[in-house]
UniProtKB/TrEMBL annotation:
Its main location: membrane. The keyword Cell membrane applies. It is a multi-pass membrane protein. Gene3D superfamilies: Multidrug efflux transporter AcrB transmembrane domain (1.20.1640.10). Pfam families: Sec_GG, SecD_SecF_C. NCBIfam families: transloc_SecF (TIGR00966). The gene is secF. Residues 97-285 form the Protein export membrane protein SecD/SecF C-terminal domain. One of its GO terms (molecular function) is protein-transporting ATPase activity. This is Protein-export membrane protein SecF. One of its GO terms (biological process) is intracellular protein transmembrane transport.
Length: 295
């Protein structure tokens, strides 16, 4: 099939998906969790389902003049509270006040505090980690294929997947209050590796075909490579997607957005390795050919 004939349509689809998220990133940014801003994570468990009341917890926090980042259910009869840094005395006050309201003393399951200095350090390390990963991938692909256009195109495909994921979470953060945490960073790095894996498979087929059929136009070789790898790529991705959907539906709320990020990245990575990375190579090759003809 002549997939590359529609390369500009693929770029248009990518642009339509990326632009709203890019707008959101520029004007609203991402909503960081306490992992990055500093704060306290408190998880409480009640014995009675009726007492697992987010409204009651919110009312208690307001009475004690404690700022709330978010309150959510984290399992059966459990409440997860994210707030600005609070002391052990504040936790005792929260539990004591709730005990009076619901006629039951909730059990403290988790109490973690992250300082703002640690949060800033985590941001710095996250950025360095992503830059290092991208640099190593660029060097690896460049070395494997002996051509800078393969490495640059692979990085652009990764950049495409990153923008899709970051943009969607920026929109979710603005409209639904979804926060990014260290698990989100893990998801981003995982998706980058998944994206480059599929891209390398396609590029390897293109390289083999180039050696085997040196006189065949590059676009035809790209079409051949995509045709040969597309069904394999989709089948591999579907097994991952089915597993992630099961985990999203059956897993706890603390994993919900991590799994969702992996789902988005898997779909985007499958698309970009075939319909972004390969077309970018074709466009690059056309430009090189045109330049040679002009000179």
């Amino acid at each position: 099939m002549k997939f590359m004939r529609l390369k500009w349509l693929y770029f248009l689809i990518s642009g339509i998906v990326i632009l709203p998220g890019l707008f959101s990133l520029i004007f609203w940014g991402l909503k960081p969790s306490i992992d990055f801003t500093g704060g306290t994570l408190l998880e409480l468990q009640f014995t009675k389902a009726a007492n697992n009341n987010k409204g009651m917890v919110e009312e208690t926090m307001k009475e004690l003049n404690l700022d709330i980042s978010s309150i959510q259910s984290s399992g059966e009869n459990r409440i997860l509270i994210k707030t600005k840094p609070i002391s052990r005395e504040d936790v005792s006050s929260i539990i004591g006040t709730l005990a009076k309201k619901v006629d039951e003393k909730p059990t403290e399951l988790q109490f973690d505090t992250v300082g703002p200095v640690l949060g800033k350090e985590l941001i710095r390390k996250t950025i360095i980690g992503i830059l290092l990963a991208s640099s190593f991938i660029l060097l690896y692909v460049w070395r494997q294929f002996r051509d800078p256009m393969f490495g640059v195109s692979a990085i652009l495909a990764m950049f495409h997947d990153s923008l899709v994921l970051l943009g969607i979470f920026s929109l979710l953060g603005h409209f639904a209050g979804v926060e990014i945490d260290t698990l989100f960073v893990t998801a981003v790095l995982t998706i980058l590796s998944f994206s480059i894996h599929d891209t390398v498979v396609v590029y390897d087929r293109i390289r083999e075909s180039t050696k085997k059929y040196p006189k065949v136009p590059f676009e035809d070789l790209a079409n051949k490579a995509v045709t040969e790898t597309l069904s394999r790529s989709i089948n591999n991705s579907m097994t991952i997607i089915f597993m992630l959907i099961s985990l999203y539906l059956l897993g706890g709320s603390t994993l919900k957005w991590f799994v969702f990020a992996l789902l988005i990245g898997t779909v985007s990575g499958t698309y970009s390795s075939t319909f972004t990375a390969a077309p970018l190579l074709v466009v690059w090759e056309h430009l090189k050919t045109r330049k040679r003809n002009l000179s």
